[in-house]
Amino acid sequence: MLYDIAATGLWRKYTQYSNDSNQHLTHALNCMYHADKAGFLSKGNMALILTYCEKHGKDDKVPFSDEDLARFNKICPKDYRNHLNPFGMEIEESPVELIEE
What is d(CA 84, CA 48) in angstroms, rounded to the nearest whole number? Predict the structure, then answer.
């Protein structure tokens, strides 16, 4: 379970900091891989993995098999991911600006 929590924090660092972002991404994906193998990968992190793969393709950083990704997609379909808006997904407008309007 700690792998899943650590992965969330590392993913946040990946999206927020340009320095060492690839290193944070690699560590986050590896933590997610270990969390999945232990049966503790959260739906939110599944959504992050799928969104990353949709945006960047399945590259050598992604330690998951095609079968793993298909399983994640069944658990976390596109409609669900669109409503979840996990860390790392781009937001078109600043939330502060939306409140001020």
Answer: 10
Helix and strand numbers, DSSP H then E, in the chain: 6, 0
Model pLDDT for residues 34-51, shown as the tens digit of each residue = 999 999 999 999 999 999
Give me the residue label for tokens 């298909």.
70
Q: Which amino acid is at 39?
A: G
DSSP code at position 62:
-
* Amino acid symbol at 50: L
Question: Is pTM, for the whole model, over 0.90?
Answer: no
Burial grade of 11 (CB within 10 A; 0-12, 13-18, 19 or more): buried
How many other CB atoms sit within 10 Å of the CB of residue 41? 24
64 and 31 in contact (C-beta within 8 Å)?
no
Q: What is the DSSP letter of 93?
A: S
